[in-house]
Amino acid sequence: MLPQRVAPIAGETLNSYLARIAQANHLTVTEVLAVLPTWFSTKTNNLDDRAQHHMLAPAATQALHELARLTGTTPAGLAHALPAFGTDEGPVRATTACHQCTARLGIRQPVPVHLPVHHKVCTRHGIWLSDLGEPHLDLSICPEITTAQHRANRLLRRFTPQQLTLAHQTAVETVPPWPDSPAAVPHHWRYRRLALQTHNHQRGIPTDLDAHAHASIYPDAIELAAAALAKHPHHPARSIGEDSPHLRTATPAGHGHFATQDSSPQVKATASGTAR
Question: Where is the composition biased (Polar residues) (predicted)?
Fold first, then answer.
Protein backbone atom coordinates (compact mmCIF):
# COMPACT_ATOMS: atom_id res chain seq x y z
CA MET A 1 0.00 0.00 0.00
CA LEU A 2 1.24 3.47 -0.87
CA PRO A 3 1.81 5.84 2.06
CA GLN A 4 -0.44 8.56 0.61
CA ARG A 5 -4.01 7.52 -0.11
CA VAL A 6 -5.70 9.22 -3.05
CA ALA A 7 -9.47 9.17 -3.36
CA PRO A 8 -10.83 8.96 -6.92
CA ILE A 9 -13.13 11.64 -8.29
CA ALA A 10 -16.45 10.49 -9.74
CA GLY A 11 -16.02 9.85 -13.47
CA GLU A 12 -12.25 10.42 -13.37
CA THR A 13 -10.15 9.00 -16.17
CA LEU A 14 -7.72 6.25 -15.27
CA ASN A 15 -4.73 8.23 -16.55
CA SER A 16 -5.68 11.17 -14.34
CA TYR A 17 -6.11 8.99 -11.25
CA LEU A 18 -2.79 7.20 -11.73
CA ALA A 19 -1.05 10.55 -12.28
CA ARG A 20 -2.49 11.90 -9.02
CA ILE A 21 -1.40 8.76 -7.16
CA ALA A 22 2.12 9.19 -8.52
CA GLN A 23 2.25 12.88 -7.68
CA ALA A 24 0.96 12.38 -4.13
CA ASN A 25 3.61 9.74 -3.46
CA HIS A 26 6.47 11.51 -5.25
CA LEU A 27 6.68 8.80 -7.90
CA THR A 28 6.41 8.67 -11.66
CA VAL A 29 3.44 7.10 -13.37
CA THR A 30 5.84 4.49 -14.77
CA GLU A 31 6.84 3.52 -11.24
CA VAL A 32 3.20 3.18 -10.21
CA LEU A 33 2.42 1.06 -13.27
CA ALA A 34 5.40 -1.18 -12.48
CA VAL A 35 3.71 -2.48 -9.32
CA LEU A 36 0.30 -2.96 -10.95
CA PRO A 37 -0.88 -5.70 -13.33
CA THR A 38 -0.09 -5.20 -17.03
CA TRP A 39 -3.84 -4.58 -17.49
CA PHE A 40 -3.21 -0.98 -16.45
CA SER A 41 -0.41 -0.33 -18.94
CA THR A 42 -2.58 -1.62 -21.75
CA LYS A 43 -5.65 0.24 -20.55
CA THR A 44 -3.91 3.60 -20.20
CA ASN A 45 -2.82 3.43 -23.84
CA ASN A 46 -6.48 3.45 -24.86
CA LEU A 47 -7.92 6.98 -24.83
CA ASP A 48 -11.44 5.63 -24.37
CA ASP A 49 -11.69 4.57 -20.75
CA ARG A 50 -15.10 3.01 -21.24
CA ALA A 51 -14.03 0.69 -24.06
CA GLN A 52 -14.10 -2.89 -22.78
CA HIS A 53 -11.84 -4.90 -25.06
CA HIS A 54 -12.64 -8.61 -24.95
CA MET A 55 -9.01 -9.39 -24.10
CA LEU A 56 -8.99 -7.03 -21.11
CA ALA A 57 -12.44 -7.63 -19.67
CA PRO A 58 -11.65 -10.97 -17.95
CA ALA A 59 -8.75 -9.40 -16.01
CA ALA A 60 -10.63 -6.25 -14.97
CA THR A 61 -11.82 -7.62 -11.62
CA GLN A 62 -8.34 -8.66 -10.54
CA ALA A 63 -6.94 -5.32 -11.69
CA LEU A 64 -9.60 -3.50 -9.69
CA HIS A 65 -8.71 -5.37 -6.49
CA GLU A 66 -4.99 -4.81 -7.02
CA LEU A 67 -5.53 -1.07 -7.42
CA ALA A 68 -7.73 -1.01 -4.30
CA ARG A 69 -5.04 -2.84 -2.32
CA LEU A 70 -2.32 -0.48 -3.52
CA THR A 71 -4.28 2.71 -2.81
CA GLY A 72 -6.01 1.64 0.39
CA THR A 73 -9.44 2.25 -1.10
CA THR A 74 -12.33 -0.15 -1.64
CA PRO A 75 -12.97 -2.00 -4.90
CA ALA A 76 -16.59 -0.85 -4.83
CA GLY A 77 -15.56 2.78 -4.45
CA LEU A 78 -13.09 2.55 -7.32
CA ALA A 79 -15.53 0.74 -9.58
CA HIS A 80 -18.20 3.36 -8.93
CA ALA A 81 -15.87 6.30 -9.55
CA LEU A 82 -13.69 5.15 -12.44
CA PRO A 83 -15.36 4.47 -15.83
CA ALA A 84 -12.36 2.31 -16.79
CA PHE A 85 -13.85 -0.51 -14.73
CA GLY A 86 -16.99 -0.70 -16.79
CA THR A 87 -19.68 1.04 -14.76
CA ASP A 88 -22.33 1.89 -17.34
CA GLU A 89 -24.49 4.89 -16.51
CA GLY A 90 -25.62 5.65 -20.03
CA PRO A 91 -24.20 8.21 -22.50
CA VAL A 92 -21.33 10.31 -21.16
CA ARG A 93 -19.39 13.42 -22.13
CA ALA A 94 -15.84 14.55 -21.49
CA THR A 95 -15.37 17.48 -19.12
CA THR A 96 -13.45 18.36 -15.97
CA ALA A 97 -14.63 17.88 -12.41
CA CYS A 98 -16.03 20.91 -10.61
CA HIS A 99 -12.98 22.97 -9.68
CA GLN A 100 -14.54 23.94 -6.35
CA CYS A 101 -15.19 20.30 -5.44
CA THR A 102 -11.61 19.30 -6.25
CA ALA A 103 -10.18 22.34 -4.46
CA ARG A 104 -11.88 21.13 -1.27
CA LEU A 105 -9.82 17.95 -1.65
CA GLY A 106 -6.62 19.93 -2.08
CA ILE A 107 -6.47 19.29 -5.84
CA ARG A 108 -5.45 22.38 -7.79
CA GLN A 109 -5.09 21.02 -11.31
CA PRO A 110 -8.08 20.21 -13.59
CA VAL A 111 -9.29 16.62 -13.24
CA PRO A 112 -10.59 15.16 -16.54
CA VAL A 113 -13.74 13.13 -16.07
CA HIS A 114 -16.46 11.39 -18.05
CA LEU A 115 -19.82 12.46 -16.65
CA PRO A 116 -23.32 11.39 -17.68
CA VAL A 117 -24.54 13.59 -20.53
CA HIS A 118 -27.39 14.90 -18.39
CA HIS A 119 -25.00 16.08 -15.64
CA LYS A 120 -24.43 19.71 -16.65
CA VAL A 121 -24.19 21.51 -13.31
CA CYS A 122 -22.46 21.00 -9.99
CA THR A 123 -25.49 21.80 -7.87
CA ARG A 124 -23.40 22.03 -4.69
CA HIS A 125 -21.46 25.03 -5.98
CA GLY A 126 -23.63 26.35 -8.83
CA ILE A 127 -20.98 25.69 -11.49
CA TRP A 128 -21.68 24.97 -15.16
CA LEU A 129 -19.45 22.05 -16.15
CA SER A 130 -18.40 23.17 -19.61
CA ASP A 131 -17.12 20.83 -22.28
CA LEU A 132 -13.51 19.71 -22.01
CA GLY A 133 -11.17 22.58 -22.81
CA GLU A 134 -13.54 25.36 -21.78
CA PRO A 135 -13.58 27.06 -18.35
CA HIS A 136 -16.42 26.44 -15.94
CA LEU A 137 -19.04 29.14 -15.48
CA ASP A 138 -20.25 30.62 -12.21
CA LEU A 139 -24.06 30.40 -12.27
CA SER A 140 -24.76 32.51 -9.18
CA ILE A 141 -26.18 35.27 -11.39
CA CYS A 142 -28.69 32.80 -12.90
CA PRO A 143 -29.76 30.34 -10.15
CA GLU A 144 -32.55 29.01 -12.37
CA ILE A 145 -29.91 27.06 -14.32
CA THR A 146 -28.97 25.12 -11.20
CA THR A 147 -32.67 24.65 -10.47
CA ALA A 148 -33.04 23.13 -13.95
CA GLN A 149 -30.35 20.56 -13.12
CA HIS A 150 -32.28 19.60 -9.98
CA ARG A 151 -35.34 19.15 -12.16
CA ALA A 152 -33.42 16.97 -14.60
CA ASN A 153 -32.24 14.83 -11.69
CA ARG A 154 -35.84 14.35 -10.56
CA LEU A 155 -36.85 13.29 -14.08
CA LEU A 156 -34.24 10.54 -13.86
CA ARG A 157 -36.25 8.93 -11.09
CA ARG A 158 -38.90 8.12 -13.70
CA PHE A 159 -37.02 8.01 -16.99
CA THR A 160 -33.77 6.57 -18.28
CA PRO A 161 -30.73 8.73 -19.07
CA GLN A 162 -31.24 7.88 -22.73
CA GLN A 163 -34.85 9.13 -22.64
CA LEU A 164 -33.86 12.35 -20.92
CA THR A 165 -30.97 12.93 -23.32
CA LEU A 166 -33.17 12.46 -26.38
CA ALA A 167 -35.91 14.68 -24.95
CA HIS A 168 -33.37 17.39 -24.15
CA GLN A 169 -31.80 17.27 -27.62
CA THR A 170 -35.24 17.51 -29.22
CA ALA A 171 -36.28 20.34 -26.92
CA VAL A 172 -33.20 22.38 -27.85
CA GLU A 173 -34.54 22.65 -31.39
CA THR A 174 -37.87 24.09 -30.24
CA VAL A 175 -36.78 26.70 -27.70
CA PRO A 176 -38.15 30.02 -29.00
CA PRO A 177 -35.55 32.55 -30.17
CA TRP A 178 -37.51 35.26 -28.34
CA PRO A 179 -40.58 35.01 -26.08
CA ASP A 180 -43.94 36.39 -27.19
CA SER A 181 -44.50 38.08 -23.86
CA PRO A 182 -42.21 40.97 -22.79
CA ALA A 183 -42.78 39.85 -19.19
CA ALA A 184 -40.84 36.64 -19.94
CA VAL A 185 -37.73 38.43 -21.19
CA PRO A 186 -35.83 38.55 -17.83
CA HIS A 187 -36.02 34.75 -17.70
CA HIS A 188 -35.37 34.10 -21.36
CA TRP A 189 -32.16 32.53 -22.58
CA ARG A 190 -30.89 35.57 -24.50
CA TYR A 191 -31.20 37.77 -21.45
CA ARG A 192 -29.68 34.99 -19.34
CA ARG A 193 -26.77 34.61 -21.75
CA LEU A 194 -25.90 38.30 -21.52
CA ALA A 195 -26.01 38.11 -17.72
CA LEU A 196 -23.70 35.08 -17.72
CA GLN A 197 -21.27 36.68 -20.15
CA THR A 198 -21.06 39.87 -18.10
CA HIS A 199 -20.75 38.09 -14.76
CA ASN A 200 -18.12 35.60 -15.86
CA HIS A 201 -16.16 38.16 -17.88
CA GLN A 202 -15.34 39.74 -14.53
CA ARG A 203 -13.62 36.45 -13.68
CA GLY A 204 -11.50 36.66 -16.82
CA ILE A 205 -13.61 34.26 -18.89
CA PRO A 206 -14.07 35.21 -22.57
CA THR A 207 -17.58 36.11 -23.66
CA ASP A 208 -17.52 34.17 -26.95
CA LEU A 209 -17.50 30.66 -25.47
CA ASP A 210 -20.15 28.14 -26.46
CA ALA A 211 -20.60 27.36 -22.76
CA HIS A 212 -22.49 30.64 -22.24
CA ALA A 213 -25.05 29.62 -24.83
CA HIS A 214 -25.33 26.03 -23.61
CA ALA A 215 -25.94 27.14 -20.05
CA SER A 216 -28.35 29.94 -20.88
CA ILE A 217 -30.67 27.74 -22.90
CA TYR A 218 -30.65 24.88 -20.40
CA PRO A 219 -33.66 25.83 -18.21
CA ASP A 220 -35.87 26.35 -21.27
CA ALA A 221 -34.78 23.06 -22.82
CA ILE A 222 -35.32 21.08 -19.62
CA GLU A 223 -38.77 22.62 -19.25
CA LEU A 224 -39.70 21.50 -22.73
CA ALA A 225 -38.10 18.09 -22.21
CA ALA A 226 -40.15 17.57 -19.04
CA ALA A 227 -43.34 18.40 -20.92
CA ALA A 228 -42.45 15.96 -23.70
CA LEU A 229 -41.60 13.18 -21.25
CA ALA A 230 -44.85 13.81 -19.39
CA LYS A 231 -46.69 12.69 -22.50
CA HIS A 232 -44.99 9.29 -22.37
CA PRO A 233 -47.77 6.68 -22.16
CA HIS A 234 -46.23 5.04 -19.08
CA HIS A 235 -45.73 8.26 -17.16
CA PRO A 236 -48.82 10.48 -16.68
CA ALA A 237 -48.33 14.23 -17.11
CA ARG A 238 -49.55 14.93 -13.59
CA SER A 239 -46.37 13.36 -12.20
CA ILE A 240 -43.85 15.37 -14.21
CA GLY A 241 -44.11 18.99 -15.29
CA GLU A 242 -46.07 22.12 -14.69
CA ASP A 243 -47.60 24.56 -17.15
CA SER A 244 -45.20 27.25 -18.27
CA PRO A 245 -45.08 30.38 -20.43
CA HIS A 246 -41.99 28.95 -22.15
CA LEU A 247 -43.92 25.85 -23.18
CA ARG A 248 -46.67 27.94 -24.72
CA THR A 249 -44.23 30.02 -26.79
CA ALA A 250 -42.22 27.17 -28.29
CA THR A 251 -41.70 27.41 -32.04
CA PRO A 252 -42.10 24.43 -34.38
CA ALA A 253 -39.25 21.98 -34.71
CA GLY A 254 -36.55 23.19 -37.04
CA HIS A 255 -36.69 26.81 -35.84
CA GLY A 256 -34.45 28.45 -33.29
CA HIS A 257 -31.82 25.70 -33.43
CA PHE A 258 -29.08 26.00 -30.87
CA ALA A 259 -25.94 24.00 -30.18
CA THR A 260 -25.70 22.01 -26.97
CA GLN A 261 -22.94 19.99 -25.40
CA ASP A 262 -24.58 16.72 -26.34
CA SER A 263 -25.88 17.73 -29.78
CA SER A 264 -24.92 15.79 -32.86
CA PRO A 265 -23.11 17.66 -35.68
CA GLN A 266 -26.42 17.77 -37.54
CA VAL A 267 -28.12 19.53 -34.64
CA LYS A 268 -25.32 22.02 -33.86
CA ALA A 269 -26.37 25.26 -35.49
CA THR A 270 -25.94 28.62 -33.83
CA ALA A 271 -28.99 30.86 -33.62
CA SER A 272 -28.54 34.09 -35.48
CA GLY A 273 -28.43 37.35 -33.59
CA THR A 274 -27.41 35.92 -30.25
CA ALA A 275 -26.16 38.24 -27.54
CA ARG A 276 -22.47 39.00 -27.68
Answer: 260-276
